[in-house]
Amino acid sequence: MSKNSLSPQKVNFFLFFKLPSAWWCGVRLSKLSATTAVSTVTHKWLNQNPFKSMYFAVQAMAAELTTGALVMQEIQSSGEKISMLVLENESFFHKKATGKIRFECLQGEEVRQAINQSIQTGEGVKLNLKSSGFNENNELVSHFQFVWTIKLKK
Questions:
Q1: pLDDT tens digit string along 86-96?
Q2: Which of 15, 25, 34, 104 could serve as a FRET partner for 41 with CA atoms 20 to 30 Å apart?
């Protein structure tokens, strides 16, 4: 299976059927490469909090998507049956999220190494992935850390 067989379009289609709350809130994967995943979400009435900015959980969905897409892509490329699950999450907010917010995870190489380690050892691996959200002025709005567990299925 090629490294690029998972595309933003396929992931967004998956969102519609498997994570409809993310899809209806406007979360979309816009870029997926071997090293990078980027998602976007635009602040609107449906995803706002009482303070007229984007609700924190919507930001979390967009951030998690960038980390999860890299893991899913690498699992698919490996050809192995591997489970993945978020074990921990931390979030940090720096600025009100309004307008279009872009989340980025740049840790594709670390994901690849962790998947290979799990395949070689047969053991579970914890993987700490970060995603940062930026507004249209490229200012940091929020950042998230997700600890993923991955394990070869027997």
A1: 999 999 999 99
A2: 34
- Please report the domains of the chain, with CATH numbers, ordered by start residue: 8-152 (3.10.129.10)
* Stated pTM of the model: 0.93
State pLDDT tens for residues 87-139.
999 999 999 999 999 999 999 999 999 999 999 999 999 999 999 999 999 99
Quick check: 97 and 60 in contact, CB under 8 A?
no
